[in-house]
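>> received
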Amino acid sequence: MLKKLVVWGASGHALVVADILRLGCEYNVVGFLDDISSEQKNRLLCDLPVFAGRNFMQDLMRSGVYHVIFGFGNCEARLNLAKWSQGQGFSIATAIHPNATVAAGVSVGPGTVIAAGAVVNPGARIGENVIVNTCASVDHECVLDDGVHICPGAHLAGRVSVGRASWVGIGTSVVDRVRIGAGVMIGAGSVVVNDIPDGVLAYGVPAKVIKRL
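>> returned
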């Protein structure tokens, strides 16, 4: 029997996550959870109900839903809500698209989403609640800390490290052995050739620090 699961989030990325799970044979997605929009009543997303906020979580548990995964991009929020959900007794699911390539032996933490066309090569380590988005690549021996988001079409060369809750924008390229700190945002289409310190916005070709966040 498939395990009942709710996707926390009710917009575009939540649809992607739900579709990945639909293609698997482990979870039955019962609906989406939205604690941001005030217009919840009778709302459907992909023909599934949208539940009104975290106060509904215990009702879901009483109906046999014990698993949750996060379908939104905010990195710190995914980590905070994962901790909260576990405190309520929920298990955090993982979603790996069948058309993603994940090398044997790669460690993938709970809550992580690896989308269609993504590639994760040998020796990489993927933390908890990470997103490796559509057609992104994470090469050999990279380390992605908890909450990282590697956006669609971004490419990390070998032995790159990305710190906790950092965001690597769409189409970005990162050369080998670069360290991107925690709480960083790398703008779309950047080329990162040097280390990036914690807590900054950086972008450009080559990427330069623009401001502290």
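>> The first helix runs from residue 12 to 23.
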